[in-house]
Amino acid sequence: MSGEFFSIVDTETTGLFPGGNDRIAEIAIVTMNRQGTIVDSWETLINPQRDLGKQSIHRIQSRDVLDAPSFKDLAEELHWRLSGTVLVAHNLSFDSRFLEAEFRKCGLPVPETFLAQGMCTMRMSHRYLQGAGRSLQDCCDSFGIDLQQAHSAVGDATATATLLSRYMELDPDEPEWDGRLRLAAAGRWFDSMPRSRVAPVKRSQYRTESAGHFLEKLAARLPEFSGTATEENYFAVLDLALMDRYVSAHEEAQLLQTAADIGLDKHQALRLHELYFQQLVATAWSDGVLTEDEIADLVKVIGLLGLPSQLIEVAKVPPVASEDKEPIRKPQGNHQLDPGAMVVLTGDMTRPRSEIEAQLASAGFTPHRAITKKVALLVAADPDSLSGKAKKARDYGIPVVGEEYLWNTLLS
């Protein structure tokens, strides 16, 4: 495609291990320009030429892929759509490894620089969403982005595109945005229209409801990880591997192979398994209660990750209150907010948001678009809101107030 664009990609796969027999079963490419405007959205199911793996996660039905094209059928179309663009994904390591493996299998590899110069919105969250977890849901909640059709390629790719646009709004002068786009455009490798266009095949229906079980809920709320990119990429694989609370013997071996593929030895992987379990336990205790169902799931995780069984007894002990988790404070006046304090708005208010933000700035505060641990106050049209922003603010102990407080106290 001509011009300077980001290609935001998401894949749904039959499993987690592109080095083995797992394949891509669905792909979406959302094309977005530097201004954050989506200019194209394309999706298709792919016949993986094998069983669909854990359908409880991606929820693709077998009958839907029977007449879907193979990856080889789509290779030229994908080259044309991706050529000269900046590859973007949430957990880029996962999607890029699958793309590399699929292109290589059909004998039409993409340039190594294309994958190497991609951008990962999961890793970028450490810069723009301090305190957020790695899941796409958690990052979207920080901005109040509605993640629709989760675990479908087009749903996740669209949410990731919106997330990237919010990052660019927070940091419009960052030279990397334009630098990456120019570099990618200069490296375009496929200019001509594909000789034959293959009609995309879409799902017969989308299931929008979440699986909603314990581990999926915890994975969406896990705290920010301060380790290396390699370790976080492995944690993101664990999130997916444990989502259905089952890891086969084959998958267990493949987890260790995946660890080796991204630069971890067996000892490091097992150390990360224990750290991951500790994060699950801490998140499970965050509401002050560890239920019998949660204990049963943690016991399963211990077995799945090859950890010592006695860890469950340690997990049952209530944690000591953390000093960095402050209780929610009810603000009494604007004197409680320091000059320059960050204030976030959410919901439809009685005046345009731009006008309110201008007044906040004139009063010495800093209007901000995302919930991070540095935010001092969230002003909500509905202070009892269950929006992603409000939920994230409460998790961080940030006061949530109504519009009345804004006019009667903060800007009075």
Give the helices and strands as they follow along the chain: EEEHHHEHHEHHHHHHHHHHEHEEHEH
CATH architecture grouping of the largest domain: 2-Layer Sandwich
Q: Averaged pLDDT, please?
A: 87
- CA radius of gyration is 22 Å
Order of strands, widest sheet: 3-2-1-4-5
Low-confidence stretches: none
Report the portion of residues in β strands: 5-15%
Q: How many alpha or pi helices? A: 18
Biggest beta-sheet profile: 5 strands, mixed
The CATH superfamily title of the largest domain = Ribonuclease H-like superfamily/Ribonuclease H
Instruction: Name the quaternary structure.
Output: single chain
What is the C-level CATH assignment of the largest domain? Alpha Beta
Distance between the termini: 52 Å
Enzyme class: transferase
EC number: 2.7.7.7
Organism: Glutamicibacter arilaitensis (strain DSM 16368 / CIP 108037 / IAM 15318 / JCM 13566 / NCIMB 14258 / Re117) (Arthrobacter arilaitensis)
Protein name: DNA polymerase III subunit epsilon
